[in-house]
Design a protein that fits this description.
The complex is a heterodimer of chains A (about 120) and B (about 110). Chain A is built from no helices and 11 strands. By secondary structure, chain A is mainly beta. With about 110 residues, chain B is an all-beta fold. The termini of chain B are far apart. Chain B is globular and about 35 Å long. Classes of the chains: A mainly beta (about 120), B mainly beta (about 110). At the A-B interface, loops of A face strand 5 and strand 10 of B.
Chain lengths: ~120, ~110
């Protein structure tokens, strides 16, 4: 069965960086994309970016002004997101989600990770 | 960016009720509209994609319709496990954007 397993919760100081992993199983990792979405307390879901796990190509939300980097390790079936310059406004649950790729793809997130809570506090 | 606006933001309903949630996009998104259900403390769950396609394993009481800029999610007969927050999302362009959510409670 398809699963996305994320790394555990972390507490970070303002100005620090955080790197979250998302390890896929149950499907061919390189045939899909991984998107990252976060949710601050009581807020709506916010899209951060995505990576084509096969080609490695990425797209990011401009809302993060260059603070976000997404990479993947195909040998480990794992995608990572790194967010730098953390502030208290980055306190949120971060999710990875699987999406299709290719010309016939109509984007939708059919599997999600369990979420990773990142708390930014001095 | 395409703005997604849901209405209502919250509603109270009873088991067996028919519930309709609407989602409006700030520009046309053809049929690139997905619906997710989120229970407290859990990851979102895909219910419907490309406006009206039911995801595998999702009960048939859920249905979606619409086109262009206006879309609806209908729950034909609300069940106890359906009390949750529902989000629409457009999948046409980057950045992907979500509605603010509709909380369905008793």
């Amino acid at each position: 069965q398809v699963q996305l397993l994320q790394s555990g919760a972390e507490v970070k100081k303002p100005g620090a960086s955080v790197k979250i992993s998302c390890t896929a199983s149950g499907y061919t990792f390189s045939n899909f994309a991984i998107h990252w979405v976060r949710q601050a307390p009581g807020q709506r879901l916010e899209w951060m970016g995505w990576i084509n796990a096969g080609t490695g190509s990425t797209r990011y939300s401009q809302n993060f002004q260059g603070r976000v980097t997404i990479v993947r390790d195909t040998s480990a079936n794992t995608a990572y997101i790194e967010l730098s310059g953390l502030t208290s406004e980055d306190t949120a649950v971060y999710f990875c989600a699987r999406d299709c790729t290719g010309d016939k793809c109509r984007s939708h997130y059919d599997y999600w990770g369990q979420g990773t809570l990142i708390t930014v506090s001095s | 960016d395409i703005q997604m606006t849901q209405s209502p933001s919250s509603l109270s309903a009873s088991v067996g009720d028919r519930v309709i949630i609407t989602c409006r996009a700030s520009q046309t998104i053809t049929n690139c509209l997905n619906w997710y259900q989120q229970r407290p403390g859990k990851a979102p769950r895909l219910l419907i994609y490309t406006t009206s396609t039911l995801q595998d394993g999702v009960p048939s009481r859920f249905s979606g319709s619409g086109s262009g800029t206006d879309f609806t999610l209908t729950i034909s007969s609300l069940q106890p496990e359906d009390f949750a927050t529902y989000y629409c999302q457009q999948g046409c362009s980057v950045p992907r954007t979500f509605g603010q959510g509709t909380k369905v409670d008793i």
